[in-house]
């Protein structure tokens, strides 16, 4: 397994989006989707503090968090990344998209890139994601990318798994 941090932060290029490190000048655009430990930022200062914690988690090797940039504008339209479990050969994949960019294929493209990175670079054997049962958009993205529902969670959530060795070998 090749866990973070890497000598160079991995930017991942796709046709529709690319995954890149979030820069300080991106923060004001993503306050409404800035979260840390399920707490949402309400100010730019809080979002900067959260991004600092996220960057520290990356440096500590426990996560990797990308901004999802529109390939045509380089503007961040969302975020995605792995937030726990990496040291056990598994990773929890989380993602969020700015409302004005939903329904345009950005998230499916981004999650596909993140899954590929998780399998082929990190060496994950399991990838999972949790969402609420009423988040139909997230569920559609996960199912489109061959995640399977594996659990109903106590707090009205659902868990989806992507078993990597089933797909890749």
Automatic annotation (TrEMBL):
PROSITE patterns per record: GNAT (PS51186)
Keywords in alphabetical order: Transferase
GO MF annotation: an example: protein-N-terminal-alanine acetyltransferase activity
GO cellular component: cytoplasm
Pfam assignment, any one: Acetyltransf_3
Domain N-acetyltransferase: 17-169
Protein name: N-acetyltransferase
Species the sequence originates in: Flavobacterium cerinum
């Amino acid at each position: 397994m090749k866990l973070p941090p890497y000598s160079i932060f991995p930017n991942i290029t796709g046709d529709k989006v690319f995954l890149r490190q979030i820069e300080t000048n991106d923060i004001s655009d993503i306050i409404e989707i800035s979260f840390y430990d399920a707490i949402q930022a309400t100010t730019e200062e809080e979002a900067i503090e959260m991004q600092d914690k996220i960057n520290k988690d990356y440096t500590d090797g426990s996560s990797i968090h990308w901004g999802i940039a529109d390939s045509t504008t380089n503007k961040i339209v969302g975020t995605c990344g792995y937030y726990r479990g990496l040291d056990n050969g598994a990773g929890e994949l989380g993602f969020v998209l700015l409302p004005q960019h939903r329904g345009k294929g950005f998230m499916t493209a981004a999650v596909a890139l993140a899954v590929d990175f998780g399998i082929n670079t990190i060496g994950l054997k399991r990838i999972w994601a949790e969402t609420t049962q009423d988040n139909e958009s997230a569920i559609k993205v996960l199912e489109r990318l061959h995640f399977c529902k594996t659990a109903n969670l106590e707090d009205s959530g659902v868990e989806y798994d992507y078993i990597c060795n089933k797909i890749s070998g």
